């Protein structure tokens, strides 16, 4: 059955028209879906009983509860959702003082096959729908506490860009969540066709997975480098304005002896020179079967200092939820293998 959650106001108007319902019911549906966050059409009490019955015959809201949750000692929660017939996706809730961030997934598995990512080892099983993505935000107990959402979970958002853009539109529209784009960050390994659309059609923040500035070394851990070289990605980003409220950042997992030398710091400076941005240094959550080793914190600090000396705005991101497999793909892989 088709789902209402994630539809734009124009799409809800089409739904109303297709069922011979008054045009104003589209705004009423949007209010019930995104303001009141109902889980059942029967709860849309200002729609007539006849219209609710017509709507229920063809549509459902699309809210489904998580099938599992793991809670970390630091308060991080990883939720597991069932999608697409026996597959699972992950969503991570990260409380931090006055912020409450939700990390959402955009695909079932991933095509990108980055060496360090467990999600890529699952392969690609399908795209998430707008309802699948928005359900991650609406079906958890913390839904009304959220201050930020990051599209950094399972999958590559720019490889499902049509759906992601639709969700961003609903999230930032007055009829939807009414959020500022400043509260939303979308991550990418650099899939240029989708990235171009995102940069043109959205004002949300952008995070690029960099992880190595040297093309050959980056390609050895990120196959996307061959199709869309990081230099071309940077050149595209530089066509857009990040001097105001919109931000671009670069995610950089620090691997011991692989991407943490002074030469790497110097090349990052060459690559990002002239771009107003931030580099986020990340500790590596170990992944079974992956030969890469995370650099210890003292070496990450040394690398941070090397970047700061080169006038690169740099932050070390604190690891969260290590005791609940908070790295992408670990919990869902266990569940799909019957071990979760």
Description of the structure:
The chain has 13 helices and 14 strands. It is an alpha/beta fold. Helix 1 (9-18) crosses helix 2 (25-35) and helix 7 packs parallel to helix 10 (230-237). The radius of gyration is 21 Å and the shape is elongated. The model has no long low-confidence stretch (mean pLDDT 94).
The average pLDDT is 94
Query: What's the number of extended β-strand segments?
Result: 14
Principal-axis shape equals elongated
Spans of at least 5 consecutive residues whose pLDDT stays below 50 are none
Placed side by side, the strands forming the largest sheet appear as: 3-4-5-6-9-10-11-12-13-14
Strand-and-helix sequence, N→C? Answer: EHHHEEEEEEHEHEHEHEHHHEHEHEH
Summarize this entry quickly:
With 340 residues, the chain is of the alpha/beta class. The chain has helices spanning 9-18, 25-35, 49-58, 118-121, 130-138, 161-172, 192-201, 215-221, 224-227, 230-237, 262-272, 297-309, 330-336, and strands at residues 2-3, 59-60, 68-71, 77-83, 87-96, 99-103, 107-109, 124-127, 148-151, 184-188, 205-209, 248-253, 278-282, 314-317.
Topology:
Blueprint: E1 2-3, H1 9-18, H2 25-35, H3 49-58, E2 59-60, E3 68-71, E4 77-83, E5 87-96, E6 99-103, E7 107-109, H4 118-121, E8 124-127, H5 130-138, E9 148-151, H6 161-172, E10 184-188, H7 192-201, E11 205-209, H8 215-221, H9 224-227, H10 230-237, E12 248-253, H11 262-272, E13 278-282, H12 297-309, E14 314-317, H13 330-336
Parallel strand pairs: 1-2, 6-9, 9-10, 10-11, 11-12, 12-13, 13-14
Antiparallel strand pairs: 3-4, 4-5, 5-6, 7-8
């Amino acid at each position: 059955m088709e789902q209402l959650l994630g539809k734009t106001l124009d799409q809800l108007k089409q739904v109303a028209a297709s069922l011979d319902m008054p045009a104003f019911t589209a705004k009423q549906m949007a209010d019930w879906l995104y303001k009141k966050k109902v889980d059942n059409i029967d709860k849309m009490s200002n729609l007539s009983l006849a219209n609710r019955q017509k709507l229920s015959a063809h549509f459902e809201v699309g809210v489904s509860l998580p099938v599992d949750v793991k809670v970390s000692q630091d308060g991080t929660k990883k939720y597991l959702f069932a999608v697409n017939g026996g597959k699972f996706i992950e969503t991570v809730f990260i409380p931090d003082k006055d912020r409450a961030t939700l990390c959402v997934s955009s695909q079932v598995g991933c095509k990108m096959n980055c060496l360090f990512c467990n999600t890529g080892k699952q392969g690609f099983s399908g795209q998430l729908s707008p309802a699948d993505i928005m359900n991650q935000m609406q079906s958890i107990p913390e839904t009304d506490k959220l201050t930020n959402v990051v599209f950094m979970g399972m999958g590559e958002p720019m490889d499902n860009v049509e759906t992601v853009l639709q969700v961003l539109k609903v999230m930032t529209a007055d009829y939807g969540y009414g959020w500022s784009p400043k509260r939303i960050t979308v991550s990418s390994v650099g899939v240029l066709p989708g990235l171009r659309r995102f940069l043109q059609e959205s004002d949300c923040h952008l995070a690029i997975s960099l992880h190595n500035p040297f093309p050959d070394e980056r390609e050895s851990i990120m196959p996307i480098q061959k199709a869309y070289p990081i230099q071309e990605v940077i050149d595209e980003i530089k066509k857009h304005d990040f001097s105001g409220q919109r931000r671009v950042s670069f995610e950089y997992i620090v691997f011991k002896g692989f991407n943490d030398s002074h030469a790497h710091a110097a090349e990052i400076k060459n690559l990002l020179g002239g771009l107003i941005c931030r580099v986020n240094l990340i500790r590596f959550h170990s992944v079974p079967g992956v030969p890469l080793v995370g650099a210890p914190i003292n070496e990450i600090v040394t690398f941070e200092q090397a970047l700061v000396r080169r006038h690169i705005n740099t932050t070390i991101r604190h690891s969260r939820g290590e005791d609940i497999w908070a790295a992408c793909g670990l919990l869902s892989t266990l569940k799909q293998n019957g071990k979760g």
